[in-house]
Amino acid sequence: MATSNAPQLIRFADCTPEPWANGGGVTRVVAKGWFDGGSADYHWRLSVADVSSSGAFSKLPGVDRVITLTDGPGLLLTIDGQQHTLEPFRPLAFTGEAATESEVTEPTRDFNVMTRRGVCTALVDVITGSETRAVPGDSITYVISLKGSAEVELAAGVVTLGQFDTLLLPAAGTIRVKADGRVVVVRIEPVIGGA
């Protein structure tokens, strides 16, 4: 894996906004990475998107996606002809090949996880309040504050996260999260024989 063993903090304020090609929104990549030997743009990518208008999602062959609404009254997605109403903090998984359209009545913000199929998978776990989580050594774990602030207790001390700040925890251990809003824990797990 192409990571260090020390926790890394990525402040959302330092993430550069990237406008969409269709003009319907802006994305900020909060983290992305590769396993050894990676030649793609990424093996996994975590981002926050501001969606201002309805439109089609770009097709991403070979990519699995998980979207979580964080701000706004709701978001209607039509995925391969089936409608899904996104509710805040309830992740929805779908494939990058799917014909996906969004219907936006008011601007929304969402958190996205994308992984290369056959290389890695993502487990997306939204938590509220105080909870303890194991961090397995065979995965790469991120903690992101989706709403409000959060404290993450590590063996080495406490890290405070503002909204959409991201903490990378590549080493095994246990963490305790204290949130005044919502936090997501994302585990990126390699597929055996994948990379």
Structural notes for this entry:
- The protein has strands at 8-10, 17-19, 25-33, 44-51, 55-56, 63-71, 75-79, 82-86, 92-95, 100-103, 108-116, 120-135, 140-147, 150-154, 157-161, 166-169, 173-190.
- The protein is mainly beta.
- Strands 1, 12, 13, 14, 15, 16 and 17 form a seven-stranded antiparallel β-sheet that branches. Strands 2-3-4-11-6-9 form a six-stranded antiparallel β-sheet, with no helix packed on it. A four-stranded antiparallel β-sheet has the order 5-10-7-8, with no helix packed on it.
Helix-strand blueprint:
Elements: E1 8-10, E2 17-19, E3 25-33, E4 44-51, E5 55-56, E6 63-71, E7 75-79, E8 82-86, E9 92-95, E10 100-103, E11 108-116, E12 120-135, E13 140-147, E14 150-154, E15 157-161, E16 166-169, E17 173-190
Antiparallel strand pairs: 1-16, 2-3, 3-4, 4-11, 5-10, 6-9, 6-11, 7-8, 7-10, 12-17, 13-16, 13-17, 14-15, 14-17
- Major sheet: size, sense and barrel closure? 7 strands, antiparallel
Q: Tell me the CATH superfamily of the largest domain.
A: Jelly Rolls
Tally the helices.
Answer: 0
Q: Roughly how much helix do the residues carry, as a percent range?
A: under 10%
Count the E strands.
Answer: 17
Cα shape: globular
Relative strand content = over 45%
Succession of helices and strands: EEEEEEEEEEEEEEEEE
Question: Distance between the terminal alpha carbons, to the nearest Å?
Answer: 10 Å
Calculate Rg over CA atoms.
16 Å
CATH topology label of the largest domain: Jelly Rolls
Q: Mean pLDDT score, rounded?
A: 91
What is the CATH first-level class name of the largest domain?
A: Mainly Beta
**CATH architecture tag of the largest domain:** Sandwich
- Poorly predicted tracts of residues: none
How many structural units, i.e. domains?
2
The helix-and-strand class reads mainly beta
